Amino acid sequence: MSFLKYLFILFFAVFAYHVSASTCVSCHEGIEAPSENHQFACIECHSGDNTAEKKDEAHKGMYGGRNPSDPVVWDKTCGNCHQYQLDRVKTTVMFTNTGMIKNTQKAWNDFNRKLYSTTDIVSYNAKGEKFDIKPIANGEKMADELYRKFCSACHVGFDRMKGYRAHHSAGCAACHYSHDKSGKYLGNDKKLMGEKLYAKSHEMNTLPGDDVCLRCHNRSGRIALSYAGKYDGNNSLVPLNGIYPGPEIMSGVRNIRHTAADIHKRAGMECIDCHTSRELMGDGYVYENMYNQVEISCASCHGDENKLPETKRITTENAAPLYESKYYARQIAFGTEMVLTDKGNMFSNVFKKDGKYYLMLKRSGKLLEIPTIMNTDEHQVYGHDRLECYTCHSKMVVQCYGCHTIYDKREKSMDWIKGKVTKGKFSEKEDIRLYYPFPLAVNQKGKISPVTPGCQTLLTVIEENGKTSKDDYIFNFKNGKNFKFAPFYGHNTGKNAVSCRECHMNLTFAGFGEAIVSTKQQNITSSILCDKTGNPLTALYSMKNGRLRKSSQIVREKSDLMGKNVIKSMIKANLCITCHEKADDDIYGEKIDYEKILNDDIHRDLVNINN
């Protein structure tokens, strides 16, 4: 036997002895090993005393109580072995929530041009500029309190153990451990069996499943629900299953109904098959907004109308796909031609082989051939290069209209960031929720995309003496009482696009809400109006006496409304679409000269160009 082989056997024998000889397992008999790579003494992660016979003595000095990955102690635990990954996680927007805090402050007129986070951060942005970000715990504005008491329950640093189907641990365990719907431990440790406040099992998720993402992403944009083909709005909590809503519910006693799942979901793809570790765990830089950290788009894998996906061959032994794919069903080989993200980084599971593009499902290793769209006729429509792919291919976009927020100073509620109950309690209710069709505007990339209310806050403040100091107050935004809409990808994509006829003829897409048209008065209005302003809730514009009126604005930097000229072009296209319904018709390959075409011998008798 070689000396190295002898050392290897001895090494694992010692660790196996430590586990079996530990007094931890005398109480926690049957508890699962976290993973193949974590089969060592309990105290390596949890600390404490694994020789003590009594519980209090054994648990003395444990890191993080039941969760050694808690951010309070993660430098001493997970960070001991995974310092590189931990340094990244400390900067990810899912931990810092910098964008969520900033945009909440902007929506409530409380933004002072300073960035806040869930904790103190001194780091750098992608340009190499130093960021000194202050903790939101010190924020004194109402928007800061709203974040701490409402939004913060989902960030990675928070240990959420309340609510049905909403439990998640803090720190690394937030993603790498699954929780049962009930929040109970269901593993083999008889001591913990059925206990609440624990993960479903002591076994770690090396590859987090969609159930983990759903714990947080089932509210607000509800992207985890939409991706799975589920929704929770406007259903009056029916059908009922006994005395409870059912057959499927979410936290907050919300009834779940079903629709078609995203086409990628139907192909077997999980969230982790699209999203890279640099997006989820961070890349070491601090970002002001989520969309700055995201590095993928539809075009990353499918290309666009002019080019194929970009690729780069693995030529170094420390390339990210090599070590990341060690935990996949198949490992990526040295020399593989990997597809690149929009930031020029390699995907760890998307590659080119023999002239074709493939995505490998990380958990199963199954290969999916990726269709590309370069030179396809339906993607060569003049002017459509300004559209996001999901502008046409979204099947639904969650739209919550009329967010009535009540702040009652007479009540108390938990401040999740400060970790204590303080004065003031928020509650919310919405007017209506819609899914399809959806309005369009210009996003932060200059592309026309779906937008959703973000957010249409109407604030009511009840003072300690019971008097109402604000009653459905609407905040100023961009020089007026404008409702706010945000660019949004709804995560419910279909193979078949919205038809040309529907998109160009349905004025909801153009931003006119329900679009009640009076040709005589030259008015366009909506059926759902705000009592406070008289403006439509569901529209970006209205028209009165032939004049376009803006009633909403688009949040996010560099985002904007489409504008009068774009809307006119959108509607004018109906002159052709009436007969030429297909996007692959040759006439759409270049800019249409309406004056020339509609006045030729073929079209002159079909349409009166002066009308």
Task: Note down, in words, how this protein is organized.
Residues 1-21 form the signal peptide. GO terms for molecular function: oxidoreductase activity. Keywords: Signal. There is one protein chain. 22% of the residues lie in helices and 20% in strands. Residues 3-19 have low confidence and may be disordered. Among the domains are: 223-269, no CATH class; 272-379, no CATH class; 394-572, no CATH class; 573-611, no CATH class. It is globular, with a radius of gyration of 27 Å. With 611 residues, it is of the alpha+beta class. A five-stranded antiparallel β-sheet has the order 10-11-12-13-14. It has a four-stranded mixed β-sheet with strand order 16-15-19-20. The protein is built from 24 helices and 26 strands.
